[in-house]
Design goal:
Elements lengths: L1 E7 L5 E5 L4 H10 L5 E6 L5 H12 L3 E6 L2 E6 L6 E2 L1 H4 L9 H7 L2 E5 L12 H9 L3 E5 L2 E5 L7 E3 L5 H11 L5 E5 L5 H12 L3 E3 L5 E5 L8 E3 L4 H14 L2 E5 L9 H8 L2 E5 L2 E5 L9 E3 L11 H9 L4 E5 L9 H7 L3 E5 L2 E5 L8 E3 L3 H13 L3 E5 L2 H6 L3 H7 L3 E7 L2
Parallel strand pairs: 2-15, 3-14, 6-7, 10-11, 18-19, 22-23
Antiparallel strand pairs: 1-23, 1-24, 3-5, 4-5, 7-9, 8-9, 11-13, 12-13, 15-17, 16-17, 19-21, 20-21
Helix pairs in contact: 1-2, 1-7, 4-6, 5-6, 6-7, 8-12, 10-12
The structure holds uridine-diphosphate-N-acetylglucosamine (UD1).
């Protein structure tokens, strides 16, 4: 038996929904506590399956993790007790490959399992490994594991072939303690990379150029453990913006940092959506029937975020006229299209572009979450569908959305967690 959601559509959402700490910033920042010994305190850590998996990995390395408040944790790093990150853990969560950066900075030899693929693409780690080699690491791959000998490392110029978020974070965590100057050229500019950088700077790291194409790091001998609060989750915020427009109630969003979603906000504004702020509350004003269709292309930040693609596609599928969505970041990230179409949308994929003809209404049925963001989009689809939707494989959603159904229930959604056979 696995968990699923039963959603009764057609109830408008009203009230304030609050955004949690960002999964994609919390993961690298929790991993960054491995960079230096000491006692850390982290706040605004979202309560997620992925974070719990990561805490196990830290404990496996000999670190102590203690919950000290609703979303606060103390992490004590007494030094690595082992130098291997096993397949058992890395296969559960790709981001755990980021432990390689802190391991290389601290250990002469380390072993990390290669992550597998996932539903949205094969997701190799070649850019990470080339970067570590440029810093002087000797890397061999044997039986699905990466073995690294990291003696005599030295700062270097690393030109990345693509601005990979994970590779930029991994290299940052290694370079802060490696002697000399490292320049990451064609670095990822995502706000979560910047948040990790801010955390490392608070520890005493010398980093310049965060949020630009080139990040320069001056290695230091010793850093200091620190206290830090994780940034709010911009993808969760964006998901609620889409829910707010589609459910046509009066849903307001607390801590919605949508300015950090690159062109997402501009795209919505040119479609006819307006945004207002009252303190830390975001108000979304839109008349769905008057919104204009759009052409969206996902790109690295500040382009349209791939993690908002499924939710945006759902919005476009409900707007009169012809829209298009092109995915350029992950090769296989249209798995939600057949699920949306089961509910009555009119989307066809040709040459890697989703062609969308807007419909007035969709219908509840049985659907399946193929990945985290697709799952969230299907929850929103269930909220606006005529009748009842049963969504399976919600373990994807539990990996990345903190208390989603509780938050939605508080603002009027009819959503229940149920047990399913598949
Ligand atoms: C991170 C986010 C994920 C988001 C993605 C893109 C986390 C935990 N996850 O994933 O939610 O969708 O950024 O914004 O923060 N690539 C290579 N070789 C590499 C590394 C990446 O070819 O060594 C490719 C990937 O297969 C993919 C593209 O580059 O097609 C983007 O990957 P990357 O930016 O590294 O994403 P992640 O860090 O895995």
């Amino acid at each position: 038996m696995v968990d699923g959601f039963k959603i009764e559509g057609g109830h408008p959402l009203n009230g304030v929904i609050e955004v949690s700490g960002a999964k994609n910033a919390a993961l690298p920042i929790v991993i960054a506590t491995l960079v230096e010994k000491g006692e850390y305190v982290l706040h605004n850590v979202p309560d997620l399956k992925d974070i719990r998996v990561l805490f196990h990995l830290l404990e496996d390395f000999g670190m102590k993790v203690e919950k000290i408040g609703d979303n606060s944790y103390r992490i004590i790093n007494d030094g690595f007790k082992r130098n291997e990150a096993s397949y058992e853990i890395v296969k559960q969560m790709r981001a755990s490959f980021l432990v390689m950066g802190p391991m290389i900075a601290n250990l002469k030899e380390s072993v990390v399992s290669l992550p597998g693929g996932c539903a949205i693409g094969s997701r190799p780690v070649d850019i990470h490994l080339k970067g570590f080699e440029a810093l002087g690491a000797e890397i061999t791959q044997i039986r699905g594991y990466v073995h690294v000998v990291s003696e005599n490392l030295k700062g270097a110029d690393i030109a990345m072939s693509f601005p990979s978020v994970g590779a930029t974070q991994n290299l940052l965590m290694a370079a802060v303690k490696i002697h000399g100057t490292t320049r990451i050229i064609n670095a990822a500019k995502e706000p979560e990379v910047v948040d990790l950088g801010r955390f490392l700077i608070k520890m005493g790291a010398k980093i310049e150029g965060l949020g630009t194409n080139t990040i320069t790091i001056e290695g230091v001998e010793k850093l200091n453990a620190t206290e830090y609060s994780i940034m709010p989750d911009r993808i969760e915020a964006g998901t609620y913006v889409i829910a707010s427009i589609l459910t046509e109630g009066d849903l307001k969003i607390k801590n919605a940092n949508i300015e950090e979603l690159g062109v997402f906000k501009n795209n919505l504004e040119s479609m006819g959506v307006e945004f207002e702020r009252e303190g830390d509350i975001l108000i979304v004003k839109a008349d769905k029937d008057k919104l204009k269709p759009a052409k969206i292309v996902t790109m690295p930040h500040p382009g349209f975020p791939t993690d908002m693609q499924a939710q945006m596609m759902l919005l476009l599928a409900m707007i009169k006229g012809h829209s298009e969505v092109e995915e350029t970041v992950f090769e296989n990230r249209f798995m939600h299209v057949p699920e949306f179409n089961r509910m009555g949308t009119n989307i066809s994929i040709r040459h890697g572009i989703a062609n969308i003809e807007g419909v007035d209404k969709i219908y509840g049925t049985n659907v399946m979450a193929s990945d985290l963001r697709a799952g969230a989009a299907l929850v929103v689809a269930g909220l606006i569908a005529d009748g009842e939707t049963t969504l399976s494989r919600i373990y994807h959603i539990d990996r990345g959305y903190d208390k989603l159904e509780e938050k939605l229930k508080k603002v009027g959604a009819r959503i229940e967690r149920i047990k399913l056979n598949v």
